[in-house]
């Protein structure tokens, strides 16, 4: 069971956030081009498309942050 009082400060700590932002930028750009490349290149980006692209950046950010947090918690417990 995850102790959220311990996990949340780690999740929002500078090293975890910094790494997650780097991952989100790299993976988010790739996901945006995979999913919306035609619209991006044609210049016909709709508001709905922009929202979906923005969400594409949150997925790798959250995944990276959660993985780093779990790893740090695991190291603290051993």
Explain this structure.
With 78 residues, the protein is mostly helical. It has 3 helices and no strands. The protein has helices at residues 4-11, 14-42, 47-77. α1 (4-11) crosses α3 (47-77) and α2 runs antiparallel to α3. It is elongated, with a radius of gyration of 16 Å. The mean pLDDT is 92.
Determine the number of helices (DSSP H or I, runs of at least 4 residues): 3
Portion in beta strands: under 5%
Instruction: State the shape.
Output: elongated
Q: Over all CA atoms, what is the radius of gyration?
A: 16 Å
| SSE series | HHH
Report the uncertain regions: none
Class per helix and strand makeup: mainly alpha
Q: Roughly what is the average pLDDT, rounded to an integer?
A: 92
End-to-end gap: 15 Å
DSSP, total strands: 0
Sketch the major β-sheet: none
Binned, the helix content reads over 70%
Write the layout of secondary structure elements.
Layout: H1 4-11, H2 14-42, H3 47-77
Helix pairs in contact: 1-3, 2-3
What can be said about this structure in brief?
Helix content is 87%, strand content 0%. By secondary structure, the protein is an all-alpha fold.
């Amino acid at each position: 069971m995850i102790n959220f009082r311990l996990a949340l400060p780690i999740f929002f700590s500078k090293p975890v956030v910094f790494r997650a932002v780097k991952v989100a930028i790299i993976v988010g750009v790739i996901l945006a081009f995979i999913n919306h490349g035609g619209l991006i290149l044609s210049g016909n980006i709709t508001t709905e498309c922009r929202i979906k692209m923005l969400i594409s950046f949150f997925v790798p950010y959250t995944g990276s942050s959660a993985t780093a947090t779990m790893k740090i918690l695991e190291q603290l417990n051993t």
